[in-house]
What does this fold into?
Amino acid sequence: MGLRSRLGRARDAWSSHLATVRASEVVDEHIWQELGDALILADVGVATADELLDEVRQRVGREGVDDVDGVLEILKSVLVDRLGGADRSLALGGSPSVWLFVGVNGVGKTTTIGKLGGREAAAGRHLVFAAGDTFRAAAADQLAMWADRAGAPVVRGAEGADPSSVIFDAVEHAAARGADLVLADTAGRVHTKSNLMDELAKVRRVAEKGSGTVTETLLVIDATTGQNGLIQARQFAEVAAVTGIVLTKLDGSARGGIVVAVQEDLGIPVKLVGVGEGADDLVEFDPVDFVDALFAVDMTA
It folds into this structure.
């Protein structure tokens, strides 16, 4: 199933914001104002919206486009160009490799780990799950459930234990078993408290002190939080050497522009998107499919 049928309300919101643009008959200054407003309302962000608008206007002028549909086709092309070109693969290369998952509570971090673990296990990789969110027993229990489904062990500590020590132990356990990959949950503490962000930086350092190599640090963001999610992303990227973004709940009330905003602002690729509750609803992000899906309602109306 492609993104077109999975984006749901994100696609509908994007289409509604562009409705006034599509209803116009001429390309004039009013159109550019409406298009700029639509991009901002879609959570692209003011600075990125201005940059996109400038690029589209320049291309419209160079190519002599004089109709609204042509303007929107150029917008699609510009969005694909902006989102494309990044390496979205998930890196392996340690013995074991370690993938750290970071983000605030409630964004779907543990579920993301579980779904990705299932996929990696199905691909034949030997996994160890690390329940590094030691401040919420429910998170460790949930991770243990996912580990069981993947046929993999989970290493967990006592409630309130040092998250770094749990992840370190999981890496050593994986090395002893000859496992390929450690999937490590981390505490999803509030990002505005500097001591807790320092704790996250410590997790990153300690995870590499033993036998493993951190090859991915994936920041999980709830797409429905919009620009607040972008603020979180900046905070985490500063301390955790983030290598990729996972946007969850993109099938919900998210406005699709947040994908553009996050990647443009941070220069970090969106690697995976969550588009449903099922185990198979964590999918690799494809810029062409995504942009086509956003414009699909209008293009087929």
Remarks:
- Residues 46-63 form the longest helix (18 residues).
- The radius of gyration is 21 Å.
